[in-house]
Amino acid sequence: MKSRILWFSLVTVAHIFTSQAQDYPSTPPEVSPMPMKPEMTEIWEPEVPVVTPAKMLGNAPSDAIILFDGSNLDQWVSKDDPTKPAPWKIVENDHMEVVPGTGYIQTKMKFGDCQLHLEFSAPDEVQSVGQGRGNSGVFFQDRYELQILDSYNSRTYRNGQAASIYKDHAPLVNAMRSPMEWNTYDVVYTAPRFKEDGRLDSPARITVFHNGVLVQNNVTINGQTYYIGLHNYPEAHGDDVISLQDHGNKTQFRNIWLRKL
Ligand code: MG
After folding, report:
1. Which residues hold their Cβ within 5 A of ligand 1, which is an ion?
2. Which of 227, 250, 244 is nearest to 138 (CA)?
3. Most CB within 10 Å of its CB: which of 60, 162, 230, 249?
4. 122 C-alpha to center of ligand 1: Å?
5. In degrees rounded to 5, what are phi and psi of residue 242?
């Protein structure tokens, strides 16, 4: 009896696998009701929009929103009081620098899915260690932090170093440059989705290149990146601002642009 049951189970499993395989034929069917022509698998409409890429890789393509080009902080406001201008300083019409103690800054505009390019440099003067060294961060939708830290020859917890999703995902590698050099982040961010009743439908996802090196490969963001406690999604939300962290260090930023996806 047992062997009959086993045989029946094997046949059933084999049938399931066979029928699943039939959904994805590896070769065209031998008999087709209609001979295929090349144009039958060509899709023409709608036409793919044209974007003019920058002459130099890392600069903004034609459809990007310029969030910072070195000249002014017009796209940013104070996070503590969004009616006030961003309190950080512009240096040599080239980059901005955190003014420690003045608080986070945030974009005037709100965003969801996006491609973000951002350049940053740790403070020229190396001070402190670990999390106290060149700490800042970019918060997507004001909640999910991609860590900025001087992780050049400096150790801290792996899920809190540069290019980590703070206390969530460590980067695949440490691609940090020295404090005298500029770093780039190129990010593809997918916002979380929520059901009508406010529960999470799908979590946020993120891909990050640090100085051209893949460091986060389409990872799931497991919720708001709290300093203390397990991360979660406490509430549904829509598009929101991107914020930059004042963690008491003179971190510098330049060339920030974004494409809505
Ligand atoms: Mg930080």
Report:
1. 135, 137, 245
2. 244
3. 162
4. 12
5. -100, 130
Q: Which of 167, 220, 166 has the alpha carbon at shortest distance from 193?
A: 220
Read off the tokens for 26.
């590896």
Distance 135 CA to ligand 1 centre (A): 5
Tell me which residue of 100, 119, 108, 148 sits closest to 57, measured CA to CA: 119
Reduced to 3 states, what is the DSSP secondary structure of residue 183?
strand
How far apart CA 191 and CA 2 sit, in angstroms, is 51
**Can you tell me which residue has the tokens 């310029």?**
66
Tokens of 252: 């510098």
Q: What's the gap in Å between 245 CA and the centre of ligand 1?
A: 6
CA angle at residue 147 from 144 to 150, to 5 degrees? 170
- Complete domains list, the chain, with CATH: 65-260 (2.60.120.560)
Residue 241 near residue 107, CB atoms below 8 Å: yes
Q: How far apart are the first and last CA of the chain?
A: 59
Ligand 1 centroid–CA 146 distance in Å is 8
161 C-alpha to center of ligand 1: Å? 9
CA of residue 177 to ligand 1 center, whole Å: 17
Q: What is the pLDDT along the chain (261 residues), one digit of tens a residue?
A: 445 544 445 444 444 444 444 466 676 666 667 899 999 999 999 999 999 999 999 999 999 999 999 999 999 999 999 999 999 999 999 999 999 999 999 999 999 999 999 999 998 888 888 898 899 999 999 999 999 999 999 999 999 999 999 999 999 999 999 999 999 999 999 999 999 999 999 999 999 999 999 999 999 999 999 999 999 999 999 999 999 999 999 999 999 999 999
